[in-house]
Amino acid sequence: MIRSCLKASRTFISHCPVALSHDAVSQPVLVRRGLSMGLWPFSASPRDFSLPNASWNAEMRQVYDHYTALCEVKTEDSEETGPWHKLPSYNRSLKHAAGGVYLSKLIQSKARLFTRNKKEYGAAFEYVIFMNKQEKRCVCAFQAGHLLEGPPGHVHGGAIATMIDTVTGTLAGYLVGPVMTANLNINYRSPIPLGGVVLIHSALDRLEGKKIFVNCRVTSTDESKLHTEATALFISVNMGHLFGM
Ligand SMILES: CCCCCCCCCCCCCC(=O)SCCNC(=O)CCNC(=O)[C@H](O)C(C)(C)COP(=O)(O)OP(=O)(O)OC[C@H]1O[C@@H](n2cnc3c(N)ncnc32)[C@H](O)[C@@H]1OP(=O)(O)O
Question: Entry's InterPro entries (predicted)?
């Protein structure tokens, strides 16, 4: 079933008159027929969960502004490329990948990305990832919401592990394509206060065939305090493996 759906989706993409981009996926018919979206009363744009919202505190905004200023800027006239690139973040990435809108209906249609499954702003995982492809590293600003409590007033170790897996996995996936976590080693050095903002730094250590070794450090935003250290191993997989085939 899934195999034939993947095939159908590939066929669909190859016959599609426009490349399926985020916009094209979310607004396919109207965009292809050249109609103005201004007349359409419904917004079909996917929500980018990594954009600033009212729950972000000043420190989170400050980090966001700092890295945004270092990002590539493209205008109609010129293209200035900064070393950093802000990644968008959706609650079902499959839906917004080329042809994935159909797959996302067939495969666990109610599934949502673990870290993006709360609609309430600020309750759980608020984060944004900035990628530096040249240096094969990324930085994530993470503000931990009140639903992530472990020890009283502090962030649950499992929530920290989730964010480390997410950030290191995003880096590995960005650099080499689809991956799965094979191993995660974490040392918790000092607790993270709930509501606080930390930076999650991740960098590629080395590539060995299908194996991607990545390191990670969770620090205060001024980097003076180390909260957590980790190493992770990811394995390159084909799309079939991701879908359990
Ligand atoms: C595209 C969607 C984008 C989404 C964006 C949202 C961002 C969110 C990001 C969230 C990210 C969240 C991500 C998640 O949460 S992923 C979910 C959690 N992870 C899993 O469920 C993975 C389950 N395991 C497997 O599927 C397989 O075992 C994998 C794929 C990992 C390996 O497969 P397989 O077993 O068939 O491997 P191989 O035989 O080809 O071996 C290859 C090499 O690897 C070495 N090896 C293997 N395992 C280990 C190990 N444990 N320690 C040390 N080494 C290991 C092995 O010795 C060999 O080495 P060598 O002999 O070549 O030297």
Answer: HotDog_dom_sf (IPR029069), THEM4/THEM5_acyl-CoA_thioest (IPR052365), Thioestr_dom (IPR006683)
